[in-house]
Amino acid sequence: MSSDENPQERPAEQLAALLKAAADPLRLEVLRVLARDSYGVLELVSIFELKQSSMSHHLKVLASAGLVATRREGNSIFYRRALASVDPLLGEAQRRLFISVDSLPLEPELQARLDEIQSERETASRKFFTENAGKFREQADLIASFPVYQEQVAEALLAAPVDKTGENRLALELGPGEGEFLPFLAERFDTVFALDNSPAMLETSRQLVHTKGLNNVELVLGDTRRLQELDIAAQCIVVNMVLHHTPSPAQIFSDLANSLASGGVLLVTDLCRHDQAWAQEACGDLWLGFEPQDLSQWSAEAGLEEGQSIYFALRNGFQIQIREFIKPAQA
Q1: Assigned domain for 51 exists
Q2: Quick check: is 76 in a domain?
Q3: pLDDT at residue 2 above 50?
């Protein structure tokens, strides 16, 4: 072996590192927790009630084995499950490990601490929009105001394989903001639900609905967990620049997929991954955009198929992705 060859690059060495990393119950639990969301080190410390040094060690072992990947959010580093390796041997081992890990039940105490982290994220997001509802447009303009991507979203919806002839056609918009897209939806669907967890933002939408006379729009206060209670089957669900404000994007995909009718379409517009940390404080962002494969992975886990995609850059350096996901039609 030459002196500059790294033994860790050999498949056998990589597989050995993977098996070693998996030979620890706590690390398997970490992988189980990371199945549906990404967490910072301090959040994982709280979830597993470990010292930071111990958690950092376990994460380093998992990262070295290619089982977790990192992403920087401002001054924090978040960990998520890594995508499977392109190497056939290693990739198959990773996929089988993740399948086995995902079959493990979460202990009630662990689930309770996970719920607490989600609650803290939701509270921070809701607090920001409650305190800044009157400045929504000003803050949105810092990155991408609705008019910047309105035309592209409208075109994507018109081109989407949505049933345009059936009766009782229903659409849902998650996080309507100031309600600017609601007239477009109200014109094309029999019923439109607008769901927002901020009373202040929902009131802003209510004023537009009243002014425009949108009698087929129903405003609903709550998050996606309300959808199970509403028991709707939407032909189309629209999520415009909302996902990066949500505590658990993967859970959002799952909840929305359950509320899609067979053959229904989910349209997601959001930022591509960026490193502008100021957006977290200025705009209440929880996530600094997303890699396209993040949305692909969450949609696949929710049982959705990918449709068309649009990507376009803005003059301020940000990039927007408009993604179409389809719920397979039942036989």
Answers
A1: yes
A2: yes
A3: no
Yes or no: say if 274 and 285 are a contact pair by the CB < 8 Å rule: no
Answer yes or no: do 175 and 285 share one domain: yes
Same domain, 235 and 185: yes
* 139 confidence band (pLDDT: 50, 70, 90): low
Residue with tokens 């056939």: 88
Residue 186 tokens read as 């109200």
Residues with Cβ within 8 Å of residue 165, at least 6 apart in sequence: none
Give the separation between CA 71 and CA 186, rounded to whole angstroms: 38
Cα angle 102, 108, 109 (rounded to 5 degrees) comes to 110
Please give the biggest Cα pair distance in the chain.
76
Report the pLDDT value the prediction gives residue 57, as an integer from 0 to 100: 95
- Using one digit for the tens of pLDDT, what is the confidence trace for 23-63? 999 999 999 998 877 788 998 999 999 999 999 999 999 99
Indicate whether 64 and 185 sit together in one domain.
no
Distances (CA, A) of 74 to 3, 144, 245, 261, 298: 38, 19, 15, 38, 23
What residue numbers bound the domain in which 71 lies? 7-105
